[in-house]
Amino acid sequence: MAATGFQLPDDQDRLADLGRIAGAQVRVARDALRAWRGEAARARLRGQLAGLAGLPRVMRWRGPVQASRVTPIEALDRLLVCD
Q1: Is there a domain that residue 29 lies in?
Q2: Global pTM?
């Protein structure tokens, strides 16, 4: 029941994903700044700022969680991916 064609992302793929995510967030912020008088635009900017402010806490939390996982990623792959 091995997954065919599935491959875990390497560091370069993760960096590319991070770049795409950051680019999308910059576009969202730019659009919100253009419409800054709107309540929804200001709420979106507040949400983005809150996310940035909370990022260091989440990153500190993530390391110990990942280090303590007991199920290997390959086992999760077998459970989640159907042939």
Answers
A1: yes
A2: 0.61
CA distance 48 to 74: 34
Q: Is 2 within a domain?
A: no
Residue 37, domain extent:
24-80
Cα-only R_g, the chain: 18
What residue type is assigned to position 38 of the chain? Answer: G
Cα 83 to Cα 81: distance, rounded to the nearest angstrom = 7
DSSP E strands, the chain: none
pLDDT at 4: 52
Whether residue 4 lies inside any domain: the answer is no
Distance of alpha carbon 49 from the chain centroid: 16
Instruction: Spell out, as residue ranges, where the chain has pLDDT lower than 70.
Output: 1-9, 83
Q: Report the number of distinct structural domains present in the chain.
A: 1
DSSP state of 6: -
Residue 53 domain-assigned (yes or no): yes
